[in-house]
Amino acid sequence: MGAVVTGTLRFGVLGPLEVLCDGQPLRLGGERQRALLALLLLNANETVSADRLIEELWGEQAPESGRTALQVRISQLRKALGPAGAQLVTRPPGYVLRLDSGQLDLFRFERLVAEADTAEPTVAAEKLREAVALWRGAPLADLAYESFAQPAIRRLEELRLAAVERRIDADLALGRQADLVAELQMLALEHPLRERFWAQLMLALYRCGRQADALAAYQSARGALVEQLGIEPGPPLRELEQAILVQDPGLVLAPVTAFDRSLLAVGLDESALGPLLALAAPLVQRPGRELVIVRLITRGRNLAVANADVQQRRAEMSAAGIAVRAAVFTSSSAGADAVRTANELDCDLIVIHGPAEPLENAAIRAVLATAPCDVAVLVGAEPVAGPVLVPFVGAQHDWSAIELGAWLAGAWQVPLRVAGPALPGRDASRLLASASLAIQHAYGIAAEPLLVAAGPDGLVRASEDAAALVIVGLSERWRQQGLGETRAALARLAIPVVIVCRGLRPGGLAPRESHTRFTWSLGTRPA
Predict the structure, then answer these.
(1) Peptide bond into 93 cis (omega under 30)
(2) What is the CATH number of domain 259-375?
(3) Residues 6+ apart with CB under 8 A from 269
(4) Cα separation, 326 vs 316, whole angstroms
(5) What's residue 190's pLDDT?
(6) Judging by beta carbons within 10 Å of its beta carbon (0-12, 13-18, 19+), is residue 122 exposed, middle or buried?
(7) pLDDT tier, 525 (very low <50, low <70, confident <90, very high otherwise)
(8) 300 to 111, 235, 297, 329: CA distances (angstroms)
(9) Strand, helix or coil at 96?
(10) pTM higher than the cut 0.85
């Protein structure tokens, strides 16, 4: 049976039957043993009766001692799977193969397709593209002649084609019709009786300005249906032809609202959304701002329940006049998924809710280290409108902090205070004045200077006395030194604290026409 199996196993049915041990193919034995494994994989986590297994494996040629023969095959399969053989469990009246959600390619495919259901078109297209990429060819191609496999193969192939159709719908919604024409021409020829591919091809051609070609595609679809089945195209395809003939304005892709800035609020756990949205909502109340809410849940949590909660929040914020989108998906790497989403959506600020020691959270550290834009980590209670205090010493992350403070203070119509140390001989008033002048130029908000006693205690007392929210820039050496004494003391305050990390893009919420001065963006004051 080959070498002893010790690694993690992954199973594949979206192509020839495959078992990988740490990325290497595992020998499975003869055809009947492969068929047994395929039967159990197609019904993973469900009991398959011994009678059914015997019928499917041997049919009319089943030996008199069928159950004994099956037990021998089960024992051989367990041995071939090594430690994972323990996942093949006897459960009356048969057997069940218990698999984690990441062990079977079909599970991963179904998860990605389900996540696409609640995603906006850009994310949906990528998830569906990722799902289809899991396929390695015709499903169970090496078992295609087994009678038990044929219904499963038809079902799996239908799932793949449906995912392709949905991915093309998402791409069409994104205005990618020119990129789709060649692919759709091939799909329509490969599946001439599948009317949806013809409809998508006609729409893509029409949106490319090729009305005559779109009508010719309809005639090709009709010809295939009449010749092979003796029937006319269905109502949707006929109605699409008529719409093209009269150049129905509804066929033209509606212009997508262009937002100057987008903010991504990432909920790493269920309790994080309320405080996050209290911080995020004021930042997107200006025209041209959009909020994207993404809730990440662990595997095993109820996706439908989590999505219903997020969509309810989206509806409430939308009713309040906020441009907002929302989605939920499962994640085993929250930090990487948050950054990937920010990149896909070209977001300008990521907002996360974290514990009092945020740098001890692996997901938050991953976001801070790799995010393409500014990151704001909310620590503590839910923010409420009130004076905003920004400790300021002129470091690069301080400029992002004061910019965020200016936006919040302006949205809340509350004082913005900048605090610096009252050092012997020379205080920080000149630096604070420079910061205030820059903020007035960019945002029309005069920041009040506040000199405090040097050291953490002075800043903590000032924060407790003069602020409802503290926004502080991250240390430039946070990877080596963590938060540092002062920021750690602020993070333990009873009032909420936001820790800001400057991203690669200039000014997370700055105007697009801004230019960079040192490590911060300045621009014309927003109207």
Answers:
(1) yes
(2) 3.40.50.620
(3) 353
(4) 12
(5) 96
(6) middle
(7) very low
(8) 11, 41, 9, 11
(9) strand
(10) no
Mean pLDDT of 31-42: 92
- Fold classified for 383-527: Rossmann fold (3.40.50)
The whole-number average pLDDT for the span 450-469 is: 86
Whole-number Å distance between alpha carbons of 495 and 460: 11
The SS3 call for residue 93 is coil
CA distance 440 to 400: 15
- Tokens 């991203």 belong to 503
Going by C-alpha positions, the residue among 404, 418, 396 that lies closest to residue 463 is 418
**Residue in 157, 151, 148, 158 with CA at minimum distance from that of residue 34:** 148
CATH number for 109-251 (one of 1.25.40.10, 1.10.10.10, 1.20.58.220, 3.40.50.11590): it is 1.25.40.10
Q: Tell me the pLDDT tens digit for each residue of 68-108.
A: 989 999 998 988 888 878 889 999 999 999 998 889 999 99
Q: SS in 3 state form for 282-330?
A: HHCCCCCEEEEEEEEECCCCCHHHHHHHHHHHHHHHHHCCCCEEEEEEE
Residue with tokens 């800043």: 459
* First-to-last C-alpha distance (Å) of the chain: 74
Residues 6 or more apart whose CB falls under 8 angstroms from that of 504 comprise 372, 373
Residues of the chain with CATH 1.10.10.10: 9-97
40-62 exposure pattern, b = at least 16 Cβ within 10 A, e = fewer: bbbbbeebbebeebbebbeeeeb
